[in-house]
Design goal:
alpha+beta, 5-stranded mixed beta sheet, 5-stranded antiparallel beta sheet, 7 helices, globular, disordered N terminus
């Protein structure tokens, strides 16, 4: 480019002869030819080096490149709770109670300490109730998490809390890949723990007021053979008397899980869950009932004669005797 610029340089000497101009043009052409020759030589040298490099790559041992990508799925605001966090709470606590204590914008209420009274449990996430929140266990839909669950089962009945490996709460709208019919108010996902590679077991015992106790036991087989087969079996019982009124709440649960790896292609998992619940529920009270009847008011069990009498008064719009306040339909 310098040569080209020199060729177009304007000379200020008006009296220069045509011969001088011709000589200058000839000199410029010779310089351009030399530069072109040098450039061509360099180009051929670079091409030769590139060809030699290609021959070296062809003769070398071929290399393989493997790329592994792991994507953590997150939809809107999502909170993950690990087993380590769950272990900080009382063993046997309702998983929804744990989620409410660790998730902003979530609130859980219950009438008992463990949060197992399905009739009185209430979970709210940013104004949505548990009937509007999706729930899955290992990808299986659990259905509505309320008391009148006609399309699934509550997480407290489907899985022993100690056997849950982790859970997540999506505070926004539930993901489209969540298998649930009610994802409007978010989604809760639960993951069951796998059997441990080393054989062993665990036993825990909890005691509390009102004759409350909880027993949990688990046995892990460890890896049984060269294919990696392993399983575990667990059992839990929770029992407590009502803190007001007559009755008790009893829960029996059993879980088992078998994992069979299939080479490097995946694994086959079989899961078994059993639950038997006996619950005497607490009386649902309004603010007016709390103020007029007192916080310890409950059902009339076992005074069935009085219960029939009060039912008669209620059906006829009357007020039971010696009961403060007034009755309105």
């Amino acid at each position: 480019m310098c040569t080209a610029i020199t060729g177009y340089t304007f000379s200020p000497l008006v009296e220069a002869s045509h011969a001088a101009r011709a000589a200058e043009v000839e000199k410029t052409q010779r310089t351009s030819a030399k530069t072109t020759a040098k450039t061509a030589g360099k180009t051929h040298a670079v091409a030769a080096q590139h060809t030699a490099a290609q021959h070296q790559l062809a003769s070398a041992k071929p290399e393989s490149l493997k790329v592994s990508v792991q994507r953590i799925r997150s939809h809107s605001a999502e909170v993950a709770v690990t087993r380590a966090v769950m272990d900080r709470f009382i063993e046997g606590s309702n998983p929804m109670q744990v989620l409410a204590q660790t998730t902003p914008g979530a609130n859980f209420t219950s009438t008992d300490a463990f949060g197992l009274d399905t009739y009185a449990n209430n979970l709210y996430v940013r104004g949505f109730t548990q009937d509007q929140i999706g729930a899955t266990l290992d990808g299986m839909p659990l259905g509505t998490q309320g008391f009148l669950n006609d399309n699934g089962v509550s997480i407290t009945q489907a899985m022993i809390q100690d056997d849950i490996a982790g859970m997540t709460m999506s505070q926004g709208a539930g993901a489209l890949d969540s298998f649930s019919a009610q994802n409007l108010g978010g989604a809760m996902t639960y993951v069951s723990s796998d059997p441990k590679d080393k054989a062993g077991g665990k036993i825990s015992q909890t005691f509390g007021s009102y004759n409350a106790f909880r027993t949990y036991a688990r046995v892990d087989s460890g890896v049984l053979n060269s294919t990696g087969t392993k399983f575990y079996a667990s059992f839990a019982r929770t029992d407590t008397d009502l803190w007001k009124g007559m009755g008790y709440q009893d829960e029996l649960q059993a879980n088992a899980k078998l994992v069979q790896p299939v080479g490097n292609r995946g694994k086959i998992t079989a899961f078994f869950g059993y639950g038997d619940f006996t619950q005497d529920n607490y009386l649902a009270m309004t603010k007016n009932m709390w103020q007029t009847m007192g916080r310890n008011s409950t059902y009339l069990t076992p005074d069935y004669n009085k219960a029939k009498q009060w039912a008669y008064y209620g059906q006829n719009g009357l007020m039971p005797p010696r009961l403060p306040g007034s009755y309105t339909r």
